Amino acid sequence: MKSTNRRSLTATLFQCCAVVALTALSVAAQAQSAGIAPEAKQILKASTDFLASQQRFSTNTRNTLEVVLKSGQKIEFNSTGRQSVQRPNKLRSERTGDIASQLVVYDGKSLAVSNPQDNVYSQVAAPETLEDMLEFARNKLDIVAPAATSSIRTRTTS
Predict the structure, then answer these.
(1) Higher pLDDT, 2 or 84
(2) CA end-to-end span of the chain, whole Å?
(3) Coil, helix or strand for 132?
(4) pLDDT digit string (tens) for 78-99?
């Protein structure tokens, strides 16, 4: 049962990353086609199945957040990230960028979050599995995993 949960978590994390990438690409493709091509679904499924079978993996990401002001002016914030997962219960995520720098470490017992730029550190006891820890972080601590689709928020600022 735990193995299924871990595979589900890994697949979900990878799907979130893929959905973010596909969403960006689909905006340009919408003028050409409504819907997702079956070949794209097959490629995504093969990718998530492969990732779900891995005991360890890591990713490096580059992210851009674009904020559109009420005036129409666009402001871009960039960041890079490095995430690594080791089953059954290890996660390390580093994020550095224009808005914040953050380090998240999970060891199967506790979740630690630090922001070196602001000299802030916090640690809390956490559930024993990656999936349960991510749900706990999201629902109880309002911390969203890197590249998760729920972390993308549309904002309009004056």
Answers:
(1) 84
(2) 49
(3) helix
(4) 999 999 999 889 999 999 999 8
pLDDT at 34: 61
Backbone angles phi, psi at 30, to 5 degrees: -60, -30
Q: In what order do the strands lie in the sheet with 102-106?
A: 120-125, 110-115, 102-106, 90-97, 74-86, 56-69, 156-157
Six-digit token string for 125: 């006891």
Is residue 126 within 8 Å of residue 39, measured between CB atoms?
no
Return the SS3 of 135. Answer: helix
- Taking residue 20's Cβ as centre, other Cβ atoms within 10 Å add up to 17
pLDDT above 70: percentage of residues in the chain: 69
pTM: 0.63
Residues 121, 134: Cα–Cα separation, whole Å: 19
CA distances from 62 to 77, 129, 151 (A): 11, 27, 15
